[in-house]
């Protein structure tokens, strides 16, 4: 299991539209091959800064299957215009669960 971590900065005045777009896009992730959950966090100090976290079975499920799908194109249509710059995306593996 891997976690996709996407750091997103949202254009001024577009946070409500962005959040609505992510809410609308939830089914796209639900039906994606290898997707086991997604959630969105917002910055406290900077409310235009978000982190989208998606749990994938494999990196390939994200990078190949989802990004190559029509659902990914729909995701970008719903929220891409809200981005203030390119997202910073990385993949993480759990190495320790403290409690």
Question: How many helices does DSSP assign?
Answer: 3
- Return Rg in Å: 13 Å
List the helices and strands in order.
EHEEHHE
Strand order of the largest sheet: 2-3-1-4
Shape summary: globular
Major beta sheet, specifics? 4 strands, antiparallel
Quick structural summary:
The protein is 34% helix and 29% strand. The protein is α+β, with helices and mostly antiparallel strands and 99 residues long.
Structure report:
It is a single chain. The chain is of the alpha+beta class and 99 residues long. The protein has three helices and four strands. A four-stranded antiparallel β-sheet has the order 2-3-1-4. The longest helix has 16 residues. The two termini are 18 Å apart.
Task: Please describe the structure with a list of short key phrases separated by commas or semicolons.
alpha+beta, four-stranded antiparallel beta sheet, 29% strand, globular
Show the helix and strand layout.
Elements (H helix, E strand, L loop, with lengths): L1 E8 L5 H16 L4 E8 L6 E8 L2 H8 L3 H10 L8 E5 L7
Antiparallel strand pairs: 1-3, 1-4, 2-3
Helix pairs in contact: 1-3
């Amino acid at each position: 299991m891997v976690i996709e971590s996407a750091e997103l900065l949202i254009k001024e005045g577009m946070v409500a539209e962005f959040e609505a777009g992510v809410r609308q896009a939830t089914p796209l992730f639900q039906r994606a091959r290898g997707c086991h959950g997604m959630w969105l966090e917002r910055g406290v100090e900077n409310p235009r800064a978000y982190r989208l976290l998606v749990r994938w079975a494999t990196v390939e499920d994200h990078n190949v299957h989802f990004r190559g799908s029509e659902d990914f194109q729909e995701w970008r249509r719903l929220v891409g215009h809200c981005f203030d710059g390119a997202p910073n995306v990385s993949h993480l593996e759990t190495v320790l669960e403290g409690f």
